[in-house]
Amino acid sequence: MKVESLITIIISSGALLFSFLNYRRNSRIDNENHLYKLKMDIYSKILFELGELIEKIDEHYLDLKDYSEGEISLSKEEILEMEEELEDVCYAFNNFITANSLVLPKDIIATLEKLCDDTIKKQFEINYQKLNHQALQHLNNLTDDLINKANSINELMRKDLQIEKLNILLYKRLK
Question: Alpha-carbon dihedral of residues 143, 128, 135, 65, nearest 10 degrees?
């Protein structure tokens, strides 16, 4: 009778240990999956917001170019509103990054913060009251620079999420 009790206790203890280890592993996997999905959602939103910023800068560039060529008329107040709108979009993007920085890797945060700082600095360098070819070219260069930086940020995000590896694994699984 003692041997049977001992075997029962050993089997019960083994089952308890197995259940506990399985629970810990599943809990860790659930947390990792949640963090991965959260990062993917944040990255998608960052790229969307960055696209909105680029679009707004390009839209203002085209309007200011048409104004400088005499194709449209803009009052000083309208030009000032455009400048303020760009500032607001830049600061909103910066705030968005800060608000979502908790789960992002430091290198991506640093790259995004540098992009924001450079964009705000370059945007302030443009003299909206004296629109000349140089100011317009500066604004156009800002758009081109943002597009290049957005592409490199996109690559950093894809690397962080290991998208290529996941695509290969998915392809193999579906094959």
Answer: 70
Q: In this predicted model, what pLDDT tens digit does every residue of 128-144 receive, in sequence order?
A: 666 667 777 877 888 88
Give yes or no for a contact between 103 and 39, defined as CB atoms under 8 angstroms apart.
Answer: yes
- pLDDT tens per residue, range 24-39: 877 778 888 888 899 9
- The CATH number, out of the four listed (1.10.12.10, 3.20.10.10, 1.10.287.1770, 1.20.120.230), of the domain defined by the range 36-174: 1.20.120.230
Contact 82, 64 (CB under 8 A): yes
Question: What's the pTM?
Answer: 0.75
3-state secondary structure of 70: coil
| Mutual angle of helices 133-161 and 163-174, in 10-degree steps | 50
Q: Is 1 helix (H, G, I), strand (E, B) or coil?
A: coil
Query: Residue ranges per domain, the chain?
Result: 36-174
What's the distance, CA 45 to chain centroid?
A: 6
| DSSP classification of residue 104 | S
d(CA 148, CA 53): 13
